[in-house]
Predict the 3D structure of the following.
Amino acid sequence: MTPIDRLKGIMVRLRDPDGGCPWDVEQTFATIAPYTLEEAYEVADAIDRGDFDDLKSELGDLLFQVVFHARMAEERGLFAFDDVATAIADKLERRHPHVFGDEAAKGDGASQKLRWEDIKAAERASKAQHGVLDDVPVGLPALHRAAKLTKRAARVGFDWPSTDEVFAKLEEEIGELKAEIASGDAAKAAEEMGDLLFVVANLARKLGVEPEDALRSANAKFVRRFQFIEAELAKQGRAPDQSDLAEMDALWDAAKAAERR
């Protein structure tokens, strides 16, 4: 028995109404989807930390999510795990004609990336998805989706020529946000906040930066520096709520200086 067959067999047992796990039996595509997203993020986190033992475990958790969805589909007569594997294998061969088809060894990485996008556009057309933005998944993290939306629009010429125009738009959106905050209209301020974040995601895309990765890195930096503040205050037998902003700000600057050494 192969490891994947063993895993599929375990899934069958877990989903068996007669003797299986009650929690697993009651799950649906909708209830499992959040766990699928969570496992994908945990894979990314293990990679960021360079923890390859953990990466092996997290990839297993993510694979289990695929097996879980495939089993639920098989129970409903929709498709099975082997159909999922066949679908991705077919797609990869179709999208790599320079490897598996008549275009072998043609072009460099950049030209092949453009060819990939052309092939995906043809696939959208065959699915009657004629809009440029039709298949950008709604379930993506919002910043990542914003970058993908602007990238897709840029392919048909809807894009600023340079980052100068994006910075000008950022200043405009900041001004509009300040105006709505001053007016006291919370709903409009929230809308302007969204517009500002969308432009930031577009700027990241123009710079070749993945906004989710950049924000994840900033989050990690914030945690690291705040933990420095906590550690320094703990040396004096105090906690952050026993300090004040000026002191914590000075410790924050000390954390930054320590990172530069």
User: Anything to note?
Assistant: The mean pLDDT is 90. Residues 138-209 form a domain with the Helix Hairpins fold (CATH 1.10.287.1080). The chain has four domains: 3-88, 96-130, 138-209, 213-260. The longest helix spans residues 52-75.
